[in-house]
Amino acid sequence: MMLYQQMQHEGLRLSTFTFVPVLTACANLRALEDGRCVHQQVIQSACESDVFVATSLIDMYTKCESMEEAWEVFNKMPSRNVVSWNAMILGIFSWKRRLAKYVKAGEYEKTMELFKQMQKRGMRPDRFTFVPVLNACAGLRALEEGRRAHQLIMQTGCEADVFVGSSVVDMYAKCGSMEDAWRVFCKMPSQDVVTWTAMILGYVRCGQGQKALELYKRMQQEGLPSWVVCWNAMIFGHVKCGEGHKALQLFQKMQHEGVQPDPATYVGVLNACANVVALEEGRRTHERIIQSRCESNVFVKSSLVDMYAKCGSMEDACRVFNTMPSHDVVSWNALLGGFAMHGQGKEALVHFERMCEEGVHPDDITFVCLLSACSHAGFVDEGLRFNALMTTVYRIPAKLEHYTCMVDLLGRAGHLQEAENMIQGMPCKPNAAIWRALLGACRIHGNVEMGERMAKRVLELEPKNAAAFVLLSNLYAATGNLELSESVERQRKERDAKKQPGRTWIEVNDAVHTFVVDDQIHPEMIKIRAELKRLSVLMHDAGYVPNTKFVLHDVEEEEKVIHLCHHSEKLAIAFGLMSTDPGTPLRIVKNLQVCEDCHTSTKFISKIVRRKIIVRDANRFHHFENGVCSCRDYW
Questions:
Q1: Mind listing the pLDDT tens digit for each residue in 579-626?
Q2: Mind spelling out the 3-state secondary structure of 568-594?
Q3: Which of 63, 247, 252, 576 could form a disulfide with 272 if both were Cys (CB 3.0 to 4.6 A apart)?
């Protein structure tokens, strides 16, 4: 630039050979104002029509992130070669990448439009053209456009190029066509880490976590190094498969091998902590996040809010949320979802008002959280108001998730007919989950006639849905018809509809312990049973009466009581009491909905031992303290 300025000062004539390197320097330095001054000199020297100068101008403007000026130069060019086309396409794509998640989808579309114009004008694309085009197809999830680009790639012989091949694999994977991605992957003469990672991430996104794990193992067997992208893919794969403990183990191995976590890693780890309610591990991860200076990342912050909420500590969730300099809809949804899970309906409503005051526009997930909060708190009128607000004011069309929340809300409150009418009036086809939600409400309110119809609806869609059999069986049992209850249980077994075994987890001394009903494996089981026996005596003296109506075993009443005593959550609570200091809160998680007897007995235990017991079941949190549950027995 100094030499260029000296040439101008001495009045020397400028030519295309001068402008091209000067514009390249401006592009590399991101010196937009200097580039504009040079552009003026180009115009004055009548060199703007030169294809090399114009291409250099496009390159300069795109690298300086001034796309409008790049388009202006491009559109004025009397003729273009492949270099100028590539400069424009690559310019749009690189600009798009720098803006990352904040870029508008329109830039992908401009890339595709340019690619079409290039073909119409007879310009032959090369590997530098195909990579951004494939990425644009992936960004738009434009599978058919991607397939056409792939056909052209094969015709031009570019498929063997590792970068193009990797982009083809990535495009198919992001468009959800894993069969095509795998076919291209297998045909490639060689695969690098980028290609392997694209395949692994593709399987993770499609919910095929097991295939992702298998491919990762194959990658390791072939001696390829593991990238913070590949590690992240495997962590997310484990989380998606419900293997939170394995995800945490992988995170520890990643650190042991000296691989530095990035914000995406921490998001995956926090999700794993949330899934297994590993609060202490979550707190340690929070400390690492602070040390690595990743706490300012909005996705990490939102994941921290979500983790603390799902691990039973809304106090910590609110504390993290309140330290955020600003909140987007994702962070608000994490907080509102936390209030919903904890049955804190009033807090959810208050914070929604605050969200609106801050000018954050709610999305469909926001209203799922709000409707869920109303359902768990029994706020029927508020739920109806939010449902109307969503569709009329915010113009957000109701999805199945919203209808399911509304059916659950109405059903729990005893408005069974209104709930059924809502399902019948849905514009979309009901799924098994929404019929099952109403079946669950029929069990709560003892409506046998409607419950039978709902069970039939569920089993028409999912003939081996064990939950439908269990709910109907419990409905019969609750209304005193034990013969029909046993009959439904026999039908379930005949159809081979397997019940999900109940499991309960508790974190004690940095280790997560798992229990099942009538557990015989845990090494402390003799002491645990002794503790349960001691608690049973104390509960009986306090007025506890076991609820055996749902125990269908053809055995004496005493044996039914013993069976109830050995439910997985009771075993976990007993282990927690004998393994922690007096007064320490217990946090447990169960994969199924807590049963009525366990709910009642936990209230008694919390009062007897003077402990706070926090239970997260499949639907929500229950905070037991001094003989009372936060759900107020509305669950």
A1: 999 999 999 989 888 888 899 999 999 999 999 999 999 889 999 999
A2: HHHHHHHHHHHHCCCCCCEEEEECCCC
A3: 247
Structural domain includes residue 601: yes
pLDDT (tens digit, 9 = 90+) per residue, 163-187? 888 889 989 988 889 999 999 998 8
Q: What is the pTM of this model?
A: 0.68
Q: 504 has which bridge partners?
A: 515, 590
Contact 491, 525 (CB under 8 A): no
Question: Which tokens sit at 135?
Answer: 């990425």
Domain that includes residue 575, residue range: 504-629
Taking Cα atoms as reference points, which of 463, 437, 466, 462 lies closest to residue 450?
437
Task: Judge whether 481 lies within some domain.
Answer: no
| Strand 586-590 to 613-616 pairing | parallel
Which segments within 453-519 are labelled E, that is strand? 503-508, 511-516
Tokens of 397: 């069309």
Nearest one of 406, 326, 422 to 373, comparing CA atoms: 406
> What is the rounded distance in angstroms from the CA atom of residue 247 to the CA atom of residue 368?
28
SS3 state of residue 615: strand
DSSP letter for 161, please.
S
The answer to whether position 541 is within a domain reads yes
Give the residue-averaged pLDDT of 111-130.
73
On whether residue 517 sits in a domain, the answer given is: yes
Segment 405-445, tens digit of pLDDT: 999 999 999 999 999 999 999 988 999 999 999 999 999 99
Q: How many domains does the chain have?
A: 1
